[in-house]
Queue: 4 jobs
Job 1
Amino acid sequence: MNNSSLQIIETHAHIYDETYQEDRDEMLQKAFSAGVSQIWMPNCASETIDGMMVLAEKYPKQCFPMMGLHPCYVKEDFEKELAIVEDWLNKYKFIAIGEIGMDLYWDKTFVKQQEEAFLYQCQLAKKHDLWIDIHSRNAFWETVNLIEKNADPNLKGIFHCFTGTLEEAQKAIELGFLLGIGGVATFKNGGLDKILPHIDLTSIVLETDAPYLAPVPYRGKRNEPAYLTIIAQRVADLMECSIEKVIEQSTQNALHLCLEKVSK
Ligand SMILES: [Zn+2]
C-alpha cells in the first residue's frame, strides 16, 4: 500500500504505558512512517496523566490527550479523582472526555459509583463542549441506559473497542455514536465479521487500544499504533472495499467528530 497520501487516525492508544518505556520514540516513529498522522490518547486515572501530558507536549501535532476517569479505576476515592479530571479540563484543551463508561467484567463492587462517575463526566463533556470516548465491557445496555438518562442530544462520541452484536451496533449508531474498531476484527471468534458487512463505513473509526488487543498475527503480544494498517486491511476485507477507502472514510469520521465540537 502506498501511504503517502493516506492519513490514519489512531483514535485510542495508551502510548504512555510503561510497556513502551524502552522504545517509545521508535515505536511512535514506526507508526508515523506507517501513515498514522494522529494518535488520540485516552486517560485512565490521575496516575496516568503525567506520562500522557509529556507525550502531548513532545508531539503536539500528532499526540492528542483526552481527560477522564476510566471505569476500572472508579474506587472509594472516585470523587477525588473526578475533581482532578475537572481541574485539568479547566486548564487545558483536551480533544475529548475519555475513557469513561461502565465495566462489569471484573468487579461489580463499585457499579453505583461507576454510574455516578459516568453521568458526571457526561455533564463535563457538555460543559466543555467535548465528545466522549466510551469504554463499555459487559455493560452495553447499562451504558446506553445512562446515555438516555443523560438525555443530551448533542452528546456524541465513540464506543471504543466495539465488539457487540449487530443490534447493539445499530443502537450505538442511532444514538449518534461511532464504533471504534480494533484488533478484535482480526480474531477468529471476534464476531465483527458478522457486524461490519452490515454497517456503513461512515459509522466507524480505527483504533488499536495499544498496548492491548494486538491484531493477528501479533495476537497476545504488545500492540502498537503501527498495526492500524493490519486492522484497516481486515475491515476492508470484511466490508468489501479498498483499504484506501477504509482509511479515508474513518479518518474523515474521526476529524468530523472533533470539528463538530469546535465549530459549535
Ligand atoms: Zn483503553
Note: The two ends are 37 Å apart (CA to CA).
Job 2
Amino acid sequence: MKALVVHERGGPFVMEDRPDPVAGPGEAVARVMACGMGLTIQHTRMGRGQGAKFPLIIGHEISAEIVEVGSGIDPDMLKIGDAVTCYFYITCGHCKWCRLNRPPLCANFKGYVGRQIDGAYAEYLKAPASCFIRLPEGLAYKKHPGEVAVLCDAVATPYKVIRRARIAPLEHVAVIGAGGGVGIHMVMMARWAHARVIAVDVVDEKLAKCREVGAHDTVNAAGGRMTEALLDLTGGHGVDVVVDFVSTARTLTDGIKALGTGGRLVTLGGGGGATPFEALGRDLLSKELEIMGSRYCTRQEVQDTLELAARGDIWPLVTEKCPFDAQAALTIHERLEKGDVLGRAALMIRE
Ligand SMILES: [Zn+2]
C-alpha cells in the first residue's frame, strides 16, 4: 500500500510502498477513503504526544470500508464491506473505567490509533476491531468522505462536552479557540443544543466563519480583554459555560473570571503547566463553580454524532481537501502548526 510515513520527530512526510496490513486475531483492516488533518495529529508528528515511535503513520479520523476481519470477531460487530469510522483510543474494555463507560480514562490504556500504532495516512488501516464503528445508513460517506471522516473526533468531542458540562438551552456558552478544527464544531454543537453561543478567537476571519456556522456573538481576544467582553455580553452576570480549547494559564484565568453563578469551565487543550486556581478566589464556593477536564468521548457518543450528521442536524466544516501527496500534506501541517487552517482539513486518499 501507499503510505505517508514520518521518519523522525517533526520530519516531513515520505510517500512509501508498505506491505498491505494483515489482520491478526481481534483486528480488522479498512481501506481508507479520507482522513482528517488536525492539531492532535500534528502534535504527534512533532513528537509532542507521549509514546510516539518513529517511523510512524499518523491519522485517525477516517471514512473507510472494512476489507479484512481477523479471527474472533463476531460478524454482528464487524464484517467485510462495512462502512466505518474510527474510535481512536485503544482501550481494554474490562477495567473499572471502561465498565463505567468512561473509556478515555481506561486503566490499561494502550494509546492512540496513529500514535502507538500506525494510523490512516495510508491506503489501509489495521487496528483492533473495537476501534472501528459502523456508519449509519443514510450517511453519504461516498459522496462526502472528508466530512464523514472528521465526525468521529472533531464533532464527537464537542458532542461529549455538551453532556459533560450539562449545557442547557438558553445558557451562555463561550468557546475559546472557536476557529480551530474542534472549536468550530463546538460552536455548531452548542448552537444545536440551543445555547447562546459566544465564539472567542484572535483572528477576525475565523470569527466571521464562527458566526456563519451559528455563533450569536464573537469576541476577538487579541486585545487581551476577553473577560470584560464576556461580562459585557451577559449584562455583567458572566457566562454559564466556558469551553477552552486553548487552555493556557492566560485563557484559563480569563475564562474562570468570566464565569457567572453556577458556571462550569471545561478544559480540552493546552500543553499542561500550572492551572491558575487562584483565579477562582472565593467564587469556587460562593458561586458553586465547576472546573472540569474532558477527554474525547465514548463509542456511543461517536455513534450519536454520526446519527446527528445522517439526519442533517449537524454537518462538519471541512474547508480544505488535500490530495494524497507528501508535499501537499506537509504544507497543510505547517499551516496547522501556525493555526492557519480554518475548521478542519481532510486528506483525500481514495475518493
Ligand atoms: Zn479499560
Note: The two ends are 16 Å apart (CA to CA).
Job 3
Amino acid sequence: MDKHARADHPIHELLKKRWSPLAFADRPVPVDVLRRLLEAARWAPSSYNEQPWAFIVATKDKPDEFQKLLHCLVPGNQTWAHAAPVLMLTVANHNFKKNQKPNRHAFHDVGLAMGNVCVQATAEGLFVHQMAGIEVDKARADYGIPPDWEAVAGAAIGYYGDPKNLSEQLQAREKAERTRKPLGEFVFAGKWGATSSLV
Ligand SMILES: Cc1cc2nc3c(=O)[nH]c(=O)nc-3n(C[C@H](O)[C@H](O)[C@H](O)COP(=O)(O)O)c2cc1C
C-alpha cells in the first residue's frame, strides 16, 4: 500500500515513507535491528541531556511478556496491535534527577526519542504505529513504574502485513487518505495566528 506523504515541499525520503499502519506481517524483527532502533532513541537530544526516557519492550517470542504489554493497550488498539511482532511502552521521568524539580520537557524529549526510533525503523524497512490509547494506571501497577515516572505512549513495531487480514472497518482506516494541515495554519510570525511570509 502506497501511503507515502504527498509533501508540498521536498522532504527526506525516510520522512515521506513513514506512516502508521494497522496491518503487520507475522515476521519477527531481528534482535540486532531492534537494538539499532533503541540506539537511535538513545542519541536523541534532550533538555539538559537528561534523557528522561525509558522503554518497556516486549517481543512475540516471549508470549507472557507480549501478552502483559498487549493488555496495557486499550481494547481498540489491541484489535490490530496484537499482530505486530514488537510492542513498546515509552515512559517519562517527570523530574530532573539532580534536584527532583519538574522537567517540563520530559514528554517532549520522549517524543524526540520516538522520532529517532521512527526514522531508524523506516530506514530498516519497518513501521511504527504509536498509541496514546494505553492504560496508564495498569502499566504502572503491572510493571512497577515509580511515582515520578509515567507511561507516555505505546508503539507497535514490525514489517508491513496484508491489509486483507484486517476487519472491514480497519481496512477502511488503512486505506484512508493521509491528511495534514497546510503550513499556513501553524507557522506564524509577528503575532499569534499571523501566517509567516515564509509559507
Ligand atoms: C503520540 C501518538 C499517539 C497515537 N495514538 C494512537 C492510538 O491510540 N491509536 C491509533 O490507532 N493511532 C494512534 N496514533 C497514530 C496517529 O493516529 C497517526 O500518527 C496520525 O493519524 C497520522 O498518521 P500517519 O502516522 O500515518 O502519518 C498515535 C500517534 C501518536 C504520535
Note: The two ends are 31 Å apart (CA to CA).
Job 4
Amino acid sequence: MNANKPDHLQGAGTPLSQWQASPLLQQVPTVSLQELVPQGHRLVVVAPHPDDEVLGCGGLLAMMTGREADLLVVSVTDGDASHPGSSTWPAARLRDERPQESERALACLKLDVERLRWHRLGLPDTRVEQFEDQLCSHLVDLLRPGDRVLTTWRHDAHGDHEAVGRACANAVALANARLLEMPVWTWHWASPQDPRLPWQRARKLLLDDVTLARKRLAVNAHTSQLHEDAGTGAPAVLTATTLERLLQPFEMIFV
Ligand SMILES: [Zn+2]
C-alpha cells in the first residue's frame, strides 16, 4: 500500500459488514492451491510495495511452505514514499526498514526465506508508471513459460498498483505465463455489488485458522504502516478497518 492517498482512498472505506452481506461476493466460487499453482509451476508474486504481497495473498504464500523452490517474490519498490513529510519516517529509513519488514513477514508465514527467490527492483515509489516498460522487460527476463504471476489488479485504483498490474499483464503475454490478479485497495473504494469488478474471474482461496493466524502475524510485521506518525500526526497507513477487510478467511483472486 502507500499513504499518498487520492480522495477515493481516504476515509474508512466500505465496511466489512457490507462486503459480508454482498450476494455477489457470497457466490464467488472457491479455488484450490493446486488449481492456482499446479505442481511443477512457479508462483511469481509481484508486489508494488513491501506489504502488498502479504495483504493481498499472504495466505496463498503461507500455503506454499515446502514449495519455496517454486516461489519467486518481486518487490517493485521499497515503499519509501509511505510517510510524506515525516521526520520520523524519512525515505531513507523506509528504504532500509520496509524490506526488512517484508523479510520478517515472510518468515511469519513459515516460509524458508533462504530457499525462495526474492528480487528487489528498487523502482521509485508512487512513480512506477514512468518505468512501466522497463518493469515489463525485467519481468520477461525473470519469467518462465507456465509461471503463475500474481499481482495487484490493473484496476485497483492506485497508480502503482495499476502500473504493476499492466506491466505484469504485458510480461505474461510475452513470456507465455499466466496472470492472476488480486484486489487490495478495491476493498476500500468498491461497493459490495460493484459492476466494475470482474466477478466472472473472481475465485476465493479459503484460509484455514492456522493460515489466517500466520497471515495476521505477517501483516503485523509491517510495523511502519501500523501506527500513527507522531511527527506529522498522519493516521496509520493500514487502519483497523483496512486490515479487517484484508484479513477475511479467504483471499480473492481474479483468474
Ligand atoms: Zn501497495
Note: The longest helix spans residues 91-108.
